[in-house]
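ESCALATION

Customer reports they have been waiting on this structure for their group meeting. Please prioritize. Original submission:
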Amino acid sequence: MSDDGQPAGAVVVGTGFGLFTHVRALRDAGFEVRAIVGRNRERTAQRAAPLNIPLASDNLEQVLANDPAIRLVTVATPPHAHYTPVMQAIAAGRAVMCEKPFARDLAQAREMLAAAEEAGVVHALGAEFRFDSAQALLRRVVKGGMIGDPLMFSRIYQQPGQGEEEPLADWWTDAKQGGGFLGAFGTHMIDQVLSTLGPVAAVSAILRKLSTTRPEMTSDDYYNVQFVTRSGCRGVIEAAMNFPGPFVMATKVAGTKGAAWIQSGAAFGDPEEVWLKDAQGARRIPMPAELVNPAPEPFPITDLIQTEMDRWHTQGFDVAPYAKLFGQMKARMLGIEPPLPDEGGTFHEAAAGQAVLDAARRSAAEGRWVEVEAV
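Update from on-call: job pushed to the front of the queue and completed.
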């Protein structure tokens, strides 16, 4: 709510993921989406009209200067274009949420963090899957000491490569624009590691291109990152956008007193479950009511879908986690107790994740373990 009791206003920067996910999640969290900003004003207006967004613009500074009711800026542009709208939002004294991958590199991430801290604005990272039901519960299990001290973490995700006939966004295929599956998807896994296990000390990474049907792609579509945390836990995160064969997904973490993992529900389509095995045996951990997310609702306007990423994002699986992220952020903006005890990522975590991302890319290029810079 704003000072006059009305819903706080928000502006979304980006007409792809921002349009499909941010707009719906902001509204679910009680924000009023007052504007959307894109590169082309006419095209932005055409895409905004079906969602009844009052203002379409190509000038964020102008939007913020003309509408004091806007208190939050969400940035969902390609990663190489995050810096300018984030800094414009900070200069205007607005709260800001920025997508991942956060920045061009760690130096730029540190600059954005320092600016937000100096301005005293609320800032957040678009790591919405902190509020995925199973990931959130697994984090509580580990951080609550139920498996003892974490020893080993494993997260694997392999898509069989369906949908290769659909185009990818330019930045996904272009390494110079921060593209690649490590940046686009691996940053979620990196945040899961950081928020569950703590800071990462060093990494050893493999980045490869497995697709044989995308000659334009100069970035990776497969990654394997080994890591060791400062607390001594070791682990590996691996994912592939195009690895023929069955779909594979698993998350497990072992500790000094037991192990915990995420597995599919008992029946097809059931929500994921979190299981624990310790001295008392294996058992399912009940999902707390506040972590339950509603079933995804697909984006209703299919005419706006243009790329393979649009197809993924319009399935709606990230809307409910994002609504929780925005709910946590709104509480910080209002200075009240947040709805959930689980912390959302800030620009501090964004910079820490960028440090891991930079180190992984350097490791892959140089073929060696690389220490991760402290933020």
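Sent to customer with the following note: The first strand starts at residue 9 and ends at 13.
Escalation resolved.
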